[in-house]
Specification:
Radius of gyration: 21 Å
Largest sheet: 6 strands, mixed
Shape: globular
Distance between the termini: 48 Å
Bound molecules: 1,3-dihydroxyacetonephosphate, iron/sulfur cluster
Oligomer: single chain
Low-confidence stretches: 1-22
Number of strands: 17
């Protein structure tokens, strides 16, 4: 369907919701231009006028221009907890799609969750689709029936979270993966971990792991390899954290004598092995903030967070582990024009870009998320 806007033909997008991932996209013809000098004032006015009709949750990777309007900031775990506890009728989520979906799963049915730009996805979450995971699950059940617990990283679709809940598994985040794995191993002898192959690099021997490649028959594994493995890791990764290389750790140690290197567990195994500390975004922030004045840190995670850490810790040296720019492009899609657009529409009584998971998917996905909240 096409219409005109300011004399220019535009397409009206009629989105068909995918199973387990329903959303109502609104074509934002009235998006304020990024150069609008009044944007900050418009955002502040809309925020104030909305009062307790909305709570704004923001992930640490968000840009300063929007995170300044967040009522609460956190890593994906903390934000899931905030969402589960919020009493507000509307949640605006400054983060990426899987986080907003998790917020919708954890909130009551009447709560509307808004993602200001629906294009804010996650390349890692997109590396596992539900059809591939169903296929993998059915192969594992035929080779090692009843022996596998699925543990799914928060960075995944609602449909995959639902499969996890239905099959007796749990969700985990970067801050509680080790605890979730201990819990899983106590249930059944093997774990299917998806969709990040790196996250379990903390404390598990590589000899116990095999990698499931969703683009090959039977994941590219023989029945014997599956039968002998404890951990079956999905072949997925974060395109942002994958950029950090082990040589960068050596280089920064030379460049900044006395530096401590702290990295996110999504970094590749060789980088994690060389780092002094590993932690979720929340843990990285705590480690730097709690360190004594004069401490030196090299941080291997997304650049918005690292830049903010440097500004908020002027008595410490905080450097980025990579020497080139490394933002999460999809996180960066949430900008001030989209936030203003979402808030002003809400004020006008219109919910735009609502993330709404269907009831059946929500039921099972919630079970998997609640298991995470109970076990960690
Ligand atoms: P956290 O769980 O540390 O918030 O990480 C989420 C994420 O997407 C990191 O890339
Ligand atoms: Fe996804 Fe990586 Fe961006 Fe996190 S940093 S949202 S894992 S692409």
């Amino acid at each position: 369907m096409s219409e005109t806007f300011l004399g220019t033909p535009v397409m009206i997008i009629d989105r068909a919701p995918a199973p387990g991932r329903s959303e109502r996209g609104t074509f934002c013809t009235d998006l304020p231009p990024a150069a609008d000098p009044d944007l900050v004032a418009r955002a502040a006015a809309a925020r104030q006028a909305l009062d307790d009709r909305v709570v704004i949750l923001g992930h640490h990777y968000q840009k300063q221009e929007v995170i300044q309007f967040a009522d609460a900031r956190g890593d994906s775990y903390k934000l899931a907890r905030y969402a589960a506890e919020t009493g507000a009728p509307n949640v605006i989520f400054l983060g990426v799609h899987f986080m907003a979906e998790s917020a919708d799963i954890l909130t009551d049915d009447g709560v509307r969750v808004i993602l200001p730009d629906l294009a804010a996805g996650c390349s890692m979450a997109d590396m596992a689709d539900i059809a591939q995971v169903e296929e993998a699950w059915s192969v594992l059940q035929s080779v090692v029936p009843g022996q596998v617990t699925p543990i799914t990283y928060m960075n995944s679709s609602a449909a995959i979270k639902a499969l996890t809940g239905r099959e007796g598994g749990a969700i985990c985040t970067s801050s509680n993966a080790a605890g979730a794995l201990r819990w899983a191993i106590a249930q059944r002898p093997k774990v299917l971990f998806l969709p990040d192959q790196h996250l379990v690099g903390m404390g598990i021997s590589l000899d116990d792991c095999v990698v499931w490649d969703p683009h090959r028959d039977s994941g590219g594994l023989t029945d014997d390899q599956i039968a002998n493995a404890t951990m079956i890791l999905w072949k997925g990764h974060c395109s942002v954290h994958q950029r950090f290389q082990p040589e960068m750790v050596d280089a920064v140690r030379e460049r900044v004598p006395g530096v401590r290197v702290i990295v996110h567990p999504e970094c590749r195994y060789e980088v994690v092995q060389k780092a002094d500390e590993i932690g979720s975004t929340e843990r990285i922030i705590r480690a730097v903030s709690d360190s004594p004045p004069g401490s030196k840190w090299a941080v291997g995670t997304e650049l918005n967070l690292v830049t903010r850490l440097g500004i908020e810790n002027p008595d410490k040296t905080v450097v980025f582990l990579d020497r080139t720019v490394c933002f999460c492009a999809t996180m960066n899609r949430i900008d001030l024009p989209h936030l203003v657009w979402a808030m002003e529409n809400l004020l006008a009584g219109q919910v735009v870009n609502e993330i709404s998971v269907d009831p059946e998917t929500k039921h099972w996905a919630r079970l998997a998320l609640e298991r995470m909240l109970q076990i960690t």
